[in-house]
Amino acid sequence: MNKWVYLTQTAHSDMAQVLGHEPSLDEMKVTLGGKGAGLAEMTRAGLPVPPGFTITTAACMAFINAGFRFPAGMWEQALEALHQVEALYGKKFGDPADPLLVSVRSGAKFSMPGMMETILNVGLNDETLQGLVEFTENERFGWDSYRRLIAMFGRTAMGISDEVFDHVMEALKAERGVEDDTALSAADLRELVARYKAAYREALGQDFPQNPQEQLKAAVEAVFRSWMGKKAIDYRRAEKIPDDLGTAVNVVTMVFGNMGWDSGTGVAFTRNPSTGDKTFYGDYLLNAQGEDVVAGIRNTKPVAQLGDDMPQVHTQLLEIAGKLERHYRDMQDMEFTVERGKLWMLQTRNGKRTARAAVKIAVDMVAEGLISREEALLRVTPKDVDFFLHPQFDEKEIRKAKAAGRMLATGVNASPGAAVGMLAFDADTAEAWGNAGKAVIMIRPETKPDDVHGMIAAKGILTSRGGATAHAAVVARQFGKPAVVGARDLQIDVETRTVHVRGQVLREGDYASLDGAAGEVYAGEIATVVPDYEKETELRTLLGWADEVAADPAARQWPADYAGYPARGLQVWTNADYPRDARRARTFGAQGIGLCRTEHMFFEQERLPHVQQMILNADEAQALFDRQHRLQNTLGVGKEDGKPLDEKRRADLQADLAAVEHDIAASPAVKAYRGALEHLLPSQRSDFYGLFEAMDGCPVIIRLIDPPLHEFLPGQEELLVEVTDLEADTGLPRTETGKRLLAESLAEKKVLLAAVQKMHEANPMMGLRGIRLGITYPDITKMQVRAIFEAACEAAKKGIVVKPEVMIPLTGHVNELKVSQVDLEGVAKQVMAEQGITIEYKFGTMIEIPRAAVTADEVATLAQFFSFGTNDLTQMTFGYSRDDAERRFLVKYVELGVLPVNPFQVLDRGGVGKLVKMGVRLGRQTRPELEVGICGEHGGDPSSIEFCHMAGLHYVSCSPFRVPVARLAAAHAAIAHKGKVLE
Ligand code: ADP
Ligand code: MG
Ligand code: MG
């Protein structure tokens, strides 16, 4: 015989008997649901819980699978349990003199919206009502409970529409000339019961069931059915909760908090869920029932005051809180009711908490010996850590703004974060203002795909329509922009560029503040605060543990032939271009620089003219160098087209060489080219010196110049306009000097324009950039390598521990390394010889072209390290240009479910990830000691970090502000995969 029903009092031992072992908390939740397991555990711990029973989740599934029929024996078991409850409580279900009443409560393993709401006071009918009135000595309360039962039962169990009862209520209130339910008298409510019954009969063609058992049965069926309701199914899909878990039904003896001033009800947390402080926290109301506390109809009192109102109950509740925390080893959120001085516990569950509280509670509980460090790490999410690194509204300022009536509206909290800016009513305005450095909040009734450019430029997004999955919400989350959507009170008029709300008018350009986490909109600017990381002691403690967990020398296991794969977990490095970023990242816990982009350094105002000189003269100078090299080569080998050189030919070639060398010496282009490089060398050297100093003792990966050169020159359009304007000006009368200056500047612009036109590429991102540039103009990258090693040697001489790693971008074929890396390494050795010092260094490459990943065994013959540039690798694997994709179709793809997420944010394991794994495997087959990391934006994304752990990378590198998040994610990955063989 299946056991479908568990008496709360004996649930634990009964389950032990059925299972053949002590049930774990999880097993209890699977069978009894979260609420049922909580009630059973509290009872077992000796806490005062009203007697009751739980019908299992398995019964729910059996009911559904049998076409909405109770499984055999279930109802009999329920009635048997009901009798036991009667015996325990000393009242009888349906007893007219002193009735036992119950609540029927749903409760799945996970708490879930869409499930049937609790029905209180089941068992009340025309007869038992009299008993209740006598027991509570309150006639009004009796009738009020009865009319609530009829409406609640009719609505939630029998599916009568809300309006039916609302209508009846409104009519009666109108007749009595009152506005509030509370103004209705006992006699009025008695009349209401009669009318509700009539409405019930009219809606269903049958009477409200007077038989308490029939009420109970219908309520249980309704809970089971609600598991298959649309809202519940949608929620499970979204949260990936399996459909076959089912929900349990809890039948609990009613206790009454509304029986006078020695009664009450409340909600309490064992610790402050906002700050995490270890103080008892919550609200209660005297002489009130259940939902009154949350409904906000009366002003609640803080639980601390319970000590004055009911000292004994207060002491008892504190004891219970301690007991529950020790039992569940987590902060608890409890519901309680006091009936004539007696405390009853109605629910306990792990309490929801803020990011700050999550961190503090986790760290405190380790200190208290309640949980292990690993458990503490698992109690905190990457999102919680992220909270500490971004501006948040100052809570005091928010309270002030609310008090001053500045809160304009609330909407769906679509994407968290605090945003302050000027309202812009369309995407173009938002983009223009954003590019001009203004903080903008883009406001629209709703957004469309062609608004994305404005949304990217804005600090926050605000709409009056749509919900959590609207276009605005999806895009905002994708780009990490705070957003409030569907703020219905806002009347947005795009024509007049105004928004009307609660009698106020805001115009375009007016300031507003959005709290994306709370879904609130405020007028004006609200001050934000960025938490000071150095002062966040608990967070730093927690992340210290994260590093320890990730550094566990047995964190990763690999198949026997996976030579060189790391056994410890991931390190976190950072992408930093400047010493100040490097220093910040180190405070955040970075253990190396995974990517220093050198091109930013070229953009500095003082350097840009030299960079442009370098670019404009590179081609001509290089052509001369190439001729010189060819001649030197031929003369050196002494052969041409396989035939030895004769005397005559040799003399000719020697003359040619002399001529070229003369040309080189006389060439203005060569002079300008070399002059520019010489000028840039010291500035680059001092940039790198600063980095080595900031990263003393840590590896520093410096990437050689990567972007197409045209990025350093003015745009073609812009130059064309200038040339045309200057040409038009030549006709105007002016002085001789004026004419000369004009002609000079026109000539200069024309040269620049010609150069820019010559450099034009159809698709520059796939054109002359990265290693191709280094091979075409080797002096540029040689200058960079010289700067790196001169700086490194200088730093090393001062006692700084330097570990330079030179990274060659965009390799696609090993031959590219053959012609560049060897020469570059020559420069490094030469500098060390000049400086009379040797330092540890590496040369390696980025893997960002699919071909490089596929031929990684060949690439690794030269490269001593790989760094996966997953942004380009994603672009090239999908064949998407990121900018175009994100502006055009990617949002649509995610909306339609073509792609589960934006692959530029979360690494695509199935495609790009496969290439990464292949690259690591092939690379280490050639070179087991190959160092491997990732330096794309993915390096800061928790899911991608987990993947990097599984793929055998040594480190992830991300922007300084992502470093703390990445440290936690690296620890999570280590915990999740410990003891498994990865491959
Ligand atoms: P939820 O899942 O929304 O918390 P609950 O089943 O806990 O739903 O119940 C809703 C409200 O009714 C709560 O305030 C709860 O304390 C109260 N309640 C539930 N069962 C009883 C009972 N047997 N006696 C008194 N109050 C009850
Ligand atoms: Mg509920
Ligand atoms: Mg509850």
Mass-distribution shape: elongated
> What hetero molecules are in the model?
adenosine-5'-diphosphate, magnesium ion
Q: Calculate Rg over CA atoms.
A: 37 Å
End-to-end separation in angstroms reads 46 Å
In this structure, how is the largest beta sheet organized? 8 strands, mixed
| Count of helix runs | 39
Trace the largest sheet across and list its strands: 14-24-23-16-17-18-19-15
Mean pLDDT: 93
Taken as a percent bin, the fraction of beta residues is 15-25%
Which structural class do you get from the secondary structure elements? Answer: alpha/beta
Task: Please specify the SSE layout and strand pairing.
Elements: E1 5-7, H1 11-19, H2 25-44, E2 52-55, H3 57-65, H4 74-89, E3 92-93, E4 99-100, E5 102-108, E6 119-122, H5 126-136, H6 139-157, H7 162-176, H8 186-204, H9 212-226, H10 230-239, E7 247-253, E8 264-269, E9 281-286, H11 292-295, E10 301-302, H12 306-309, H13 311-328, E11 332-339, E12 342-350, H14 355-367, H15 373-378, H16 382-387, E13 392-393, H17 395-403, E14 407-410, E15 412-415, E16 418-424, H18 427-435, E17 440-444, H19 452-457, E18 460-463, H20 471-478, E19 483-485, E20 491-493, E21 498-501, E22 504-507, E23 511-515, E24 520-523, E25 528-529, H21 537-550, E26 571-575, H22 579-587, E27 593-597, H23 599-602, H24 608-637, E28 639-640, E29 643-644, H25 647-666, H26 668-694, E30 699-703, H27 716-729, H28 736-759, H29 771-776, H30 778-797, E31 803-808, H31 814-835, E32 842-847, H32 850-854, H33 856-859, E33 865-868, H34 870-878, H35 882-887, H36 890-896, H37 912-926, E34 931-934, H38 942-951, E35 955-958, H39 963-977
Parallel strand pairs: 3-4, 16-17, 17-18, 18-19, 26-27, 26-35, 27-30, 30-31, 31-32, 32-33, 33-34, 34-35
Antiparallel strand pairs: 1-2, 2-7, 5-6, 5-7, 8-9, 8-11, 9-10, 11-12, 13-25, 14-24, 15-19, 16-23, 20-21, 21-22, 23-24, 28-29
Helix pairs in contact: 5-6, 6-8, 7-8, 14-21, 21-39, 22-26, 24-25, 24-26, 26-30, 27-28, 30-31, 38-39
Bound molecules: adenosine-5'-diphosphate and magnesium ion (MG) (2 copies).
